[in-house]
């Protein structure tokens, strides 16, 4: 699939994109083509190092509807919230970049928001294939992609809850907030 770079300001409203339409949050990397099975096995979950004789990828994706887009530290940023039990969490921790992908069918998003990549190959089940552009990895089936470089990561802290009802959302699994600089906004051309 080919993508062109567009201006983030020419996209739909972020509340519609994230809260209403939902997104796939992805992180991971391409693994060298000559990577041996033993090396792949040393990655913490070989099943998700999908590979062919040409290329291999070690990545995961999950559905999100909480997050936003705005400005921080003088840069365009996206912020997302990931609970520690998500398989995607460890990819978010390991990688310098993450992506937000939009325009996927709701069935695909529902599947990736229900099944954990830790428990099964939901990426294949959802019919998704990885595309790498520079440092970013995202599902090739997306229409629009925000490529983000991690700037800041911090756990939501219950001592900061002003409205006590927020505590009802947690059972010791506070989200980690990631703020990433939006370094590229990609739109599918074909
Ligand atoms: C509409 C929707 C929105 C979601 N938003 C988030 C979110 O913002 N943060 C989060 O940690 N989990 C969120 N989830 C839950 C994860 O997508 C879900 O637990 C997923 O299976 C995790 O996959 P993983 O274990 O492969 O990372 C959402 C699920 C759905 C269906």
Helix and strand arrangement:
Elements: E1 3-5, H1 14-20, E2 23-31, H2 37-42, E3 49-51, E4 56-64, E5 67-72, E6 75-82, H3 87-94, E7 97-102, H4 106-112, H5 122-125, E8 130-133, E9 136-139, E10 144-155, E11 176-188
Antiparallel strand pairs: 1-11, 2-4, 2-7, 3-4, 5-6, 6-11, 7-10, 8-9, 10-11
Explain briefly what this protein structure is:
The protein is an alpha+beta fold. It is built from five helices and eleven strands; from the N terminus they run E-H-E-H-E-E-E-E-H-E-H-H-E-E-E-E.
Could you explain the architecture of this structure?
- With 190 residues, the protein is an alpha+beta fold.
- The chain has one domain (3-188): Pnp Oxidase, Chain A.
- The chain contains 5 helices and 11 strands; from the N terminus they run βαβαββββαβααββββ.
- A hairpin with a 2-residue loop joins β8 and β9 (136-139).
- It binds flavin mononucleotide.
- Residues 22, 60, 62-66, 81-83, 86-88, 113-118 line the site of flavin mononucleotide.
